[in-house]
Amino acid sequence: MRSYSFCMLTAAAALLVPCHALSCPGLPELSNIPGLGGLLRLLSKNSDCLPISPDTEFSDVLENFRQRLSRLEGALTLKGKIAKAGEKIIASNGKKADFSSALESCEKTGGTLATPMNKEENRAILGIVEQYNSYAYLGIKENETSGQFEYMNGTPLNYTNWYQYEPNGKGTEKCVEMYTNGNWNDRKCNLYRLTICEF
Ligand SMILES: *[C@@H]1O[C@H](CO)[C@@H](O)[C@H](O)[C@H]1NC(C)=O
Ligand SMILES: *[C@@H]1O[C@H](CO)[C@@H](O)[C@H](O)[C@H]1NC(C)=O
Ligand SMILES: [Ca+2]
Predict the structure, then answer these.
(1) Quick one: which ligand is closest to 120's CA?
(2) pTM for the whole thing?
(3) 12 contacts: CB under 8 Å, gap ≥ 6
């Protein structure tokens, strides 16, 4: 059972990501929120997300909605509940889970496990790790055949922040956790770690 605030975060995040991402799997659930379904459908038809419709009333509504989301985002950021890094929004449901359950709960809400691809994103994820004072799994896995760590879609890493002498698991530690200092450690996948998603 996902919390209401986590769903709202997902809804907010969905409106802040580019339109092409609006067809992601978690979104049908959002259509059940009164008023939001229609708005999302309208947004996704509009390739550049701008209210170019001559219907000014609708663009007023949209503008108002965007401003409210922006304030909501500000409030949540201030409380350390979400973090922003470029286009990414990083958020946690505060639950600890093994790697596959954590990944699943992120994907169910239209995101994926937080995957730091540069210093700024690593810093944003670390902010959530610090907030909950708990290690978290990252969206990075060891390739079964090559033994190299890679993103969930199989592409090679272009940024790493390993702790000294890591990774050291050599095939026995196929997942990656973030320490409370932001460094990474390869680790077994069946431990309980904070779920942090990106949207
Ligand atoms: C790695 O690639 C991603 C996506 O292309 C990009 O957002 C990120 O900034 C890159 N990281 C570095 C350290 O160049
Ligand atoms: C593992 O790496 C090999 C070669 O680098 C690649 O062909 C293969 O698709 C990767 N496997 C997975 C599961 O990503
Ligand atoms: Ca290790």
Answers:
(1) 1
(2) 0.72
(3) 69, 72, 73, 76, 89
Tokens coding 168: 């050291």
**Ligand 1 centre distance from Cα of residue 155 (Å):** 12
The burial of 69, by beta-carbon neighbours within 10 Å (0-12 exposed, 13-18 middle, 19 or more buried), is given as middle
Give the bridge partners for 89, in sequence order: 84
Ligand 2 centroid–CA 157 distance in Å is 13
Burial class (CB in 10 A: 0-12, 13-18, 19+), 111: buried
Q: Give the Å distance between the CA of 88 and the centre of ligand 2.
A: 26
Relative to the alpha carbon of 88, which ligand is closest? 1
Q: What is the DSSP string of 16-52?
A: HS-GGGGGSTTHHHHTTSTTHHHHHHHHHHSTT----
Domains and CATH numbers, the chain: 4-77 (no CATH), 81-198 (3.10.100.10)
* Predicted confidence (pLDDT) per residue in 71-108, tens digit: 888 888 877 789 999 999 999 999 999 999 999 999 99
pLDDT over 90 at 53, yes or no: no
Residue 198 Cα to ligand 1 middle (Å): 15
**Among protein residues, the one whose CA lies closest to atom 4 of ligand 2:** 146
Q: Which ligand is nearest to the CA of 147?
A: 2
